[in-house]
Design brief:
The protein is α+β, with helices and mostly antiparallel strands. It folds into 2 domains: 5-58 and 164-203, no CATH class; 77-154. Helices cover 59% and strands 14% of the residues. It contains 6 helices and 8 strands; from the N terminus they run ββαβαααααβββββ. A hairpin with an 8-residue loop joins strand 1 (5-7) and strand 2.
Length: 206
């Protein structure tokens, strides 16, 4: 795959995109990656139309599929919330234990040694619980951001149904980059791998 540059001269009827590394140094550095601009635009338009049609038909299903895909490397939200709630509850309990411990010390219900030992244990547990809580809340924020990104993408893509023209603003809003593979001939037919990587949701052809 390669990032392409646009080639255009007055002698060329159609614009095309070529691998800049191959264009500058030849096959010693990279293989040839090229595609006509009109073909690329039509491919992008068809892909946008395909995903827009799916979102228009059942947006909730599309969101659910995307959420499942982007969350494969993240913990289940339900278990995450349960652990966060449990840690917050335990931290509240520890605050209460701290208050009771100081009161017992003032009333001389416990010795200095017992007080010091319990303080060390409570502080260690409180620090560990606080660090774990911060870690989980960070993961939860990451999941929430991914879900918000998916919602933003579906909102943008649904307006691409029946798209007639594609302008630069639309491309920059929706697409992160496009990867173009080398043209190959397999069983007498020309083939070329092309991957559109969208902003917010990545490649949808994997």
């Amino acid at each position: 795959m390669a990032v392409l540059m646009r080639i255009s001269t007055s002698l060329v009827k159609y614009h095309s995109y070529h691998c800049p590394l191959y264009y500058q140094t030849g096959r010693a550095a990279c293989s040839s990656h090229t595609i006509y601009e009109l073909s690329l635009i039509e491919l992008i338009r068809a892909d946008l139309e395909k995903h827009a049609a799916r979102v228009q038909c059942d947006e909730q299903q599309v969101r659910a599929e995307l959420q499942k895909r982007v969350s494969t490397d993240l913990p289940d939200v339900r278990f995450l919330e349960q652990e966060i709630m449990g840690l917050k509850k335990r931290l509240t309990e520890l605050d209460g234990k701290f208050a009771t411990l100081y009161e017992d010390k003032v009333l001389r219900k416990i010795s200095e040694n017992s007080f010091d030992l319990l303080m060390i244990n409570y502080n260690q547990e409180r620090q560990q619980a606080g660090e774990r809580l911060a870690e989980l809340e960070k993961k939860r924020a990451a999941i929430q951001k991914k879900f918000l990104d998916i919602a933003k993408w579906t909102k943008l893509i649904r307006n691409c149904l029946g798209l007639k023209t594609i302008d630069r603003e639309l491309l920059e809003e929706l697409i992160d980059h496009i990867e173009i593979g080398e043209r190959k001939v397999i069983d007498g037919k020309k083939q070329q791998d092309i991957k559109i990587v969208y902003k917010f949701v990545g490649s949808l052809d994997e």
